[in-house]
Every structure is written in C-alpha cells, then in structure tokens.
From TrEMBL:
It is found in: Cytoplasm. The gene is uvrC. Residues 255-481 form the UvrC family homology region profile domain. Its main location: cytoplasm. Belongs to the UvrC family. This is UvrABC system protein C. It comes from Alloalcanivorax venustensis ISO4.
Amino acid sequence: MPQFDAKQFLAHCARKPGVYRMLDDDGGVLYVGKARDLRARLNSYFQKNVTGAKTRALVSRIAGVETTVTASEAEALLLEQSLIKSLRPPYNILLRDDKSYPYIKITTSDEYPRITFHRGKRGPGSRYFGPYPSAGSVRETLALVEKVFRVRNCRDSFFRNRTRPCLQYQIERCTAPCVDFVSREAYAEQVRMAMDFLSGRSRQVSDHLTEQMEKAAEQLDFERAAELRDQLAAIQAVQQKQNVETDRGGDVDAVAIAVRHGLAVVEVLMVRQGRVLGHRSFRPDTRGEEDSDEILEAFLAQYYLGERDDQSIPREIVLPGALPGQAALQEAMETHLGRRIRLAARVRGQRQAWLNMARTNADQSLHADLAAREHLEQRFHALETLLEADTPIRRIECFDISHTQGERAVASCVVFDQQGARKADYRRFNVSPEHGGDDYEALEEAVRRRYQRVVKEEAKLPDLLLIDGGKGQMQRSFEVIQSLHLDNQVLVMGIGKGPSRRPGLEVLYLPDGRELVPGGAHAALHLLQQVRDEAHRFAITGHRARRGKARRSGLEDIPGVGPKRRKALLNHFGGLKQLRNASREELARVEGINAQTAETLYNWFHE
C-alpha cells in the first residue's frame, strides 16, 4: 500500500462536523474520533510538534483515513460511540466494564408478590427499584426488606408446591403465604410498605407503623403492637445508619475522575430519591497521554450512550467541572434518550457534598491502583532476574486442569500483566482426553487449541507460559509450543509443589533442564503463586459449572424427555427431589406429559 499522503488528504477534507476512522495497512481501524471541524481536527495529528509518544506511534501506522460528515457535532458523537463499541479500536479510550446495573424487582402482578434480585431487561407486571451500584448492595437491601417486611423471595415453582412453611418462615423472614398463614390483605399491606421503603419514603412508612402500633395498643392487642414496635425500630435503625439521606429528593449521578501516572479512575456515585445507594469505580483503558477532561468526556459518552437501560439514567449528572464538549454531549444524550438531561458542572449544597464523596472515592481507588501496580512491577522484575530472561516479561498466561475422576474436564487459561489480572482475556476449554483423567492429554489439547487460534488471529502472545504441574506437564506443553514454531517467542515453565508439597517450596521447571527453588520469601514466587492460584480457581469454577449443568436435572438420559419436557417438569415441581417423589398421576398433570411418559418417568426414578 502506498504511503499515506496527509497533505493531499487534508486539502480535500470537509470543514464540517463528522466522524473519522484511521486505518492501518490491512484496513483495520486504529482509532475512531469525532470533530466539529474534520479538517482542523485531523490536521492536528500531522503536525511536526506532536508531543505524545503514543500519538506519534498512532500517526506512524496510519495508512488511510475515512470520514463521515454528519449534520451536527451531537450526531457525530452518537455515531462515534456506535463505531467504538462495534470496532473496539486499539488507540481509543475504552470502557471495559459495561455490565448492567442490578435492581430489586417486586412481581406486583402476582397474587402474593415476590421480591428478588434482577439484572437485565425490565418487563411488565413488576416494579423495579434501583439501580444499585453492585450485587452486594442489592443483597444487603434484600436481606433488610425480608427481615422487616417479611415478603417472600422464593421461586414460583417452589411457592406453588409447598405443603408446609419453609425455613424462611421459621427464621421470621417470610409470613408463609404459600400455606395461607397470612391473609391476602395483610400481605398486600406489607408489600406496599416495602415498596414505599425502597422508593425512599421510609419516613412515611415509619409514620404509618407508629399509627398502627398506637391503634393496636388502644385495642389491647399488645402482641400485634409489639410486632409493629420491632418493625418500626428496625426501620428507624436504617434511617439513622443512612446518614447521607436528605429531605431533598431526586435522582442524581455524581461523577468524579482521578488521573495520575498513566492510570485513570472514574467514580460514579448513585443517588436515588435523595438516598446514596453506593458508588462504582471504572478504569478506562487509556493511552496514558490524555488529560482528565478528555478521558471523562470519552467515559461519559460510552457509559451513557451505550446499550444500557435508559430508565436507569437519572435526569441530572453532576460533573467536577465544565467539559469542552459538554453541550454536544448533552444534546447527544437527549437525542439518544428522548428526554431532557442536565449536565451540571457548578453545584452547591448537597450536590457538592455528593461530588466531594465521589472525588474522595476516586482518589482512594487510584492510590490503591498505583500501589498495586508498583508492587506488581517489582514482582515482574524479580521474575525476569530469577529466570535470567533475555527479553522483558510483560504478559503471563497460565493453564490448569480441573475434573472429578476424569468427568467433565475443564482447562483454564488466565492472563496477567503488570496491571494485574486481565479477566477479559481469560479462556476456558472443555477438554475430552482419550483416557479420562489424563491431565497430560487434557493440557496438551487446551494449549494447542489456545495457541493455534492465537497464531491464526495474530493475537498477542504471552512472554511466559506457566503450567500448573511438574516436569511432565511442562514438557508436553513445550512440545506443543515447538510444533507451532513459537518456542523462540514464548518461554515455557512449570510450577510444581515440590517433594514436601508445602507452600513456599515450589519447584520451577524449565525446558533447558533447570529446576529452580526460589524460596517462600522471593517476590517472583509470590507472583507465580498468585497467577497459579487464579488459574486453579478459574478451572474449578468452570468444572463445577460444567459438571453441575450435566447433573442438574438428572433427566438427560430418560427416553422421550427432551429439553422442553425437562423444563416443564422442573418448573412444575420446583426441583429434582420433588420430582422423584411425585406419583404417576402428579407427573401426568404436567403440561406435555402424557400417561405413557409419566409411567416411564415413574419407573425411571423407582427402579
């Protein structure tokens, strides 16, 4: 491909809003950007006084530039975010964590509504409360609501098939509506108060309970008055604990950023109905040259213009200061959401307090990240010294195998660099060695599949391939690497537990015959132990999931019972135990199960 002629390209470039895509020799997209004036923005890349090393590296790889003219800068911003999300260009600031926020869901269409954890799309027939910043904060709130209001959390299949109260009733976390221990009206009142509480109207709930308690005392129903007193005390304790609650309601996100030494942390503090629900930290992938405004603008665009539930976005977003592209961003968000949004950069009072809280958390998170990075860099350097490596070790991939007596073997591959675990690069492999339980065969299969694909896709190779195992496992893996002609690029090493199998006395096996015992105090061994333990955890988790999936229903081998019938049976009875105890007549009542299939099922479980 001929060298890119920037001067000629700029001479014919439009001076209008739009999006540009910088391409490499193979036509791959290196970078996507938007501009109010395409020619002026692109011209800035091709000046002689460009200072940033990574920007110079980007420009040196440009083989072509494509542009798309838009009607406005806001429209360009929307197109830019769509392209970044689909293309994931290597030189863009990328938001790695796009997991949706969790909610609390109450199934209001049910006769006896259920309260539960929810993540994903929201459907009709239920009310949703949140969003919450983490699953932990949802579970904490759920535990409180169940304790105070005793609303059921069980699945419908479990609820329909109860003949006596479950443990939740025994520990006073449910009123047992499944066996009619509570009237529909009384249960509905508890659900209504729970929804008021979750909506931030805890004072109204307290006033209502106080009124009911006094009325019960006047009627000499002291047992009921005592129950209401305890319920009221629990709610008042929560009100005292929630010291950031304010009389001023409103849904607000307070966003702060901390940038230092090439790392960035963006903190989003979530306030709903005037109550702080918690905060969430984000660590965008940057080039290390952008200032805080540039990173924050990119974050806000990806975070609020991405594929999120639009209802989870509040009407007001508090920022630490005015941003250069704030007007275009606000216009793009309003176009995307179809409603008004306020980006507030100058706030006072309670909103300033929320912003300060977000700033404090961002600073603390960044400080912890910098300390961890420095610690990891020291460990990587110690590993290079220990192995007398000719080239720097910047990326480690580690494999481990997990199975139960050869059943459902799973191989894990975890990835670490000087930033820590790269979980987006983790991989699992369902392996099927010819001889069940043969770790050597399983490991060889996983390593071959992994690096055949890496070579085919020209993806990033590790500097060190770490094998959780002894000399035999290391040698088999090294032979695979040799067969793929990667032995000059990838260093292979095994980590075994040593003769005594005591932590700290691990032996490192290398293909050249060296056996190293660094000792329990060596920083390099600490790094290798961390990587190995993570590979072990990831392998066990995958194996348990695979084994559990195979064993979950125990119905896979029954003749005439396919996926739909298995699902219908489990939904009807609520679990395998209830299904095993069912009679022929009860089995035949399930939708899709005729008398012949019911007979087959009954005989299968009772032979």
